[in-house]
Design goal:
Layout lengths: L2 H30 L1 E5 L2 E2 L5 H15 L5 H12 L6 E4 H10 L6 H8 L15 E6 L3 H12 L7 E8 L6 H10 L11 E4 L4 E4 L2 E7 L16 E5 L7 H4 L7 E6 L25 E3 L3 H17 L1 E11 L25 E3 L3 H8 L6 E9 L5 E9 L5 H14 L6 E4 L16 E4 L4 E3 L2 E8 L3 H15 L5 E2 L5
Parallel strand pairs: 1-3, 3-20, 4-5, 4-9, 5-8, 9-10, 10-11, 12-14, 16-17
Antiparallel strand pairs: 1-2, 6-7, 7-8, 12-15, 13-14, 15-19, 17-19, 18-19
Helix pairs in contact: 1-2, 1-3, 3-4, 3-5, 6-12, 9-10, 9-11
């Protein structure tokens, strides 16, 4: 047998193992509301190849590839436990087991590591929480995809309705088509049908009422059986408390804005300050995509090295706020053709840092350039640190943060030397540290942070909504603090 035959045989064996993992992962999710992760990446509804690729990606974080032969025993051990709703990272289980010197059997070690999610400690499964999307643009449709994806267990968030302005002929069909196909993010994973008679879109069995209204005051959500719902305003039309309060109609309990909030509206970056949300707070903001991209790594750097001051330059993909061709626009430069020009513009991300990270004493400034790509941006974070360090120390710290810290869902890490923007379409992290581009000279560090300003940001929004709704379940093994 040749070396190539050995490699192919090994691949087919790993395919077989990954295939056997799929029904186990599915049953845990549907029957027990357990989401199986691998180094913070969900394995629910993933294909055989996706599972194998996720295992292989671990080499960029941990330094070596993780094999399905290592993780399968932990997955099998979970099926024998009395698990409650939770997120369980089998990659972390394998890593911590490898570092443990007690010689415990996998079953005993697993039971100990996830004890907080079993028996008398487990959380009871909750009733699904209604969610309403106000607006159905780029972010709204991605939020819909995520909500439908996460409805598999039937016990989390449930998308009940979408509110849009009055449409014309074939409006419902066109809206469904935009949800079904996306030029950047690809096809919707599942089936979508339209019930024009009842004004609903049915996506993977989720019946979504499409409500036409020109103003929040026109809607009584209880008339559609919606109660105690979280409304996500992705129009950006209202950004202060007075304007967003218009959404607090019958059937709506809380309002979440997908744009920077103004005045006293809390700006939340999940992973950094989401635990500061007051239980009685009814209106909050998820800040901007760029704020979500820079605040987690900024916190990680400040915690380890201290940050005295910094500047962020964002090279941002163009958005719907710009013109396709030169035309009138209320902003001077945004009227120029987005796909043909680099456009200097403003960013409020730097000033928003103070709201999300009030303990940071450093002054952060910022500027932005819009460039002719439709998605994925990069933030260049130039920091003066409180002490001198080295490039290796900075990269080791950020790699560890992306793997084991409470920020591992926000910060990703890549060392591929040929990475470009399109590689990060569909990333679920708030930002991805590009190791190869990182520069450190004494007390100066320059980080290059990629981020999918559409999908990665939408994932952050969903995490905030899960938190305020009470369906953000704990992760095991618990990340290091």
């Amino acid at each position: 047998m040749t070396v190539n035959d050995d490699s192919f045989t090994s691949w087919k064996h790993r395919e077989e193992i990954a295939e056997s993992m799929i029904p186990i992962i599915g049953r845990l999710h549907r029957e027990r509301d357990v989401t199986v992760l691998l180094h913070s990446r969900s394995l629910v509804n993933k294909s055989v190849v996706s599972i194998l690729k996720t295992h292989r990606f671990a080499r960029q974080i941990a330094g070596e590839e993780l094999s399905v032969t290592e993780t399968l025993p932990f997955l099998q051990a979970l099926t024998a436990l009395d698990l409650g709703p939770s997120q369980i990272d089998i990659g972390m289980l394998a890593a911590t087991y490898r570092a443990d010197d007690r010689g415990l059997p996998v079953e005993e070690f697993t039971a100990e590591a996830v004890a907080g999610a079993t028996g008398a400690n487990k959380i009871e499964r909750r009733e699904p929480r209604d969610v309403v999307l106000y607006g159905f643009g780029r972010i709204g449709r991605l939020l819909a995809r995520l909500l439908i994806e996460k409805a598999g267990s039937g016990n989390g968030l449930r998308l009940r309705a979408v509110v849009i302005r009055g449409g014309g002929d074939q409006d419902l069909v066109k809206r469904a088509s935009l949800l079904r196909r996306d030029s950047i993010h690809g096809q919707f994973h599942g089936t979508i049908t339209v019930d024009e008679a009842n004004g609903t879109i049915v996506a993977n069995g989720n019946e979504i009422k499409v409500i036409h209204a020109d103003d929040p005051s026109e809607v009584d959500y209880t008339a559609y059986g919606i109660k105690d719902a979280i409304l996500i305003d992705n129009t950006g039309k209202w950004r202060d408390r007075e304007g967003l309060s218009k959404h607090l109609r019958p059937g709506i309990d809380k309002v979440v804005l997908t744009a920077p909030g103004k005045g006293d509206v809390p700006n939340i970056v999940h992973g950094v300050n989401h635990d500061m949300i007051k239980p009685d707070e009814r209106i909050l903001s998820c800040a901007s995509c760029t704020t979500n991209a820079i605040v987690p790594p900024l916190k990680a750097m400040d915690d380890e090295f201290g940050v005295l001051r910094g500047h962020v330059e964002t090279v941002h993909s163009f958005t719907n706020d710009q013109n396709l061709l030169d035309n009138y626009h209320k902003s001077d430069r945004r009227g120029r053709s987005a796909p043909l020009n680099m456009v200097i513009t403003e960013t409020g991300a730097a000033s928003a840092v103070a709201k999300a990270l009030p303990d940071l004493k450093a002054r952060i400034t910022g500027s932005s350039i819009r460039v002719p790509v439709p998605d994925v941006s990069i933030a260049i974070l130039n920091l003066q640190l409180a002490r001198e360090t080295t490039r290796d120390e900075v990269l080791t710290h950020l790699r560890d943060v992306s793997l084991t810290s409470p920020l591992k869902r926000q910060i990703d890490f890549i060392s591929a030397p040929d990475a470009v923007s399109s590689d990060f379409i569909g990333s679920r992290h708030a930002s991805i540290v590009d190791a190869g581009a990182t520069k450190v000279d004494g007390d100066n560090a320059i980080l290059y942070l990629w981020y999918d300003n559409e999908f990665g940001y939408s994932c952050q929004v969903i995490r905030v909504v899960q938190h305020v709704s009470g369906v953000e379940y704990p992760t095991y093994p618990a990340p290091a603090v």
